[in-house]
Design the sequence.
């Protein structure tokens, strides 16, 4: 497994490999000593093509997230919300897929979202903290201040995400 740093402090890209045989495939996902955090809470989401989830984070009890795709392909997007960071307010995008075997570790302090690109997409998140529903907050996916170039104009999004905040209002809350 190859691990690369990014321009965003503590954001890591894990390049793994699928090992195939007649039964299917096997892939190693993470190396905890490289993340230096305990991943204590794991969830799975399944999304159809053109579903956009995000941009989300927890205001309190913030989570680091290790994100992998076990089926399909997504455009994964993060936004740095760490006020003292050199990359505050900037975003990073990466394609994660079953084929490219890439995963990303996102430290606490980032908004996170993704766009599903294949017909069926199964994403695993391992988190450094438990879900705190009362602390969840989000920013609209197409906020003009973030300048994220999404490859879609009308994604399928939840009612909750349609009501997410503008980035300028959001940063006053954190």
Sequence:
């Amino acid at each position: 497994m190859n691990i690369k740093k990014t321009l965003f402090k503590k954001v890591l890209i894990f390049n793994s490999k699928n090992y195939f045989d007649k039964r299917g495939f096997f892939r190693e996902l993470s190396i905890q000593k490289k993340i230096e955090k305990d991943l204590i809470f794991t969830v799975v989401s399944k999304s159809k093509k053109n579903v956009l989830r995000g941009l989300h984070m927890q205001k309190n009890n913030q989570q680091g997230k290790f994100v992998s795709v076990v089926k399909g392909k997504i455009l994964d997007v993060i936004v740095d919300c760490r006020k003292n960071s050199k990359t505050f307010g900037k975003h990073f995008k990466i394609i994660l897929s079953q084929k490219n075997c890439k995963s990303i570790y996102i430290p606490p302090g980032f908004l996170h979202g993704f766009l599903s690109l294949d017909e069926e997409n199964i994403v695993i998140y391992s988190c450094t903290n438990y879900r705190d529903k009362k602390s969840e907050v989000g920013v609209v996916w197409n906020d003009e201040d973030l300048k994220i170039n999404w490859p879609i104009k009308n994604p399928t999004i939840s009612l909750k995400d349609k009501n997410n905040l503008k980035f300028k209002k959001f940063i006053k809350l954190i």
In short: The domain at 2-173 is CATH 2.60.120.10 (Jelly Rolls).
